[in-house]
Amino acid sequence: MQAFSNPVGYGTLWFHNLLTAEGTPVAYDPQARAFLPTPPFCANRDVIGCNWIAPEQGAFCRSCAMTALAPDLEIPDVIPNWAETEAAKRWVIDNLGRWHWFRPEDPGTRPVFHMLADGYTLAPMGHGEGVVTISVSEADPVVRVTRKEALNEPYRTMIGHMRHEIAHMLWWRLSLREDFLVAFREMFGDERADYGAALEKHYEQGPPQDWELFYLTSYASAPP
Prior knowledge:
The chain is of the alpha/beta class. The protein contains six helices and eight strands. Helix content is about 35%, strand content about 10%.
């Protein structure tokens, strides 16, 4: 957790703060990596508590602008779940900014986010050609822990989901370079192997006996 200076007085601010201890509205500037006391604030500030600045009045911040599809607001409890999911996205996007990903100086493609909620069917999670799909329903701790235990994934968190799916997106961006693919396959194996078949084998037969020597989780040992 990183502490930030208060731009209008004493005390410390934290990454998700909307107000100072004295109640002064502030917003985070991801370019400067600092808090500012002056608008324009993100258009989602009053909707989901987004605390980032916007390029102009009534506009979305850099992170919220990446969300092309928001969840159906008629679904019960969707707004707090969406708010927590977007907060996780802001944290990951800001951390990636340390390596200049998705900042103005980055000329590459930005991710597009589809934020979905469980309704009559379960919302999917995944990435495809730059589009990251996230189920905001997993922001509910009961839903998340149930799936964590069912899938034996001890590190299943909303920030973890964002890191995982955005990493797929970054891999897709890098894979457009032939030199990257050659280096990747030498280190990790051929990613063109059938993903569905690899997962089926993983869940039916389990990971290799020595997976803990090479991977952080058993799931990571399944497909390249």
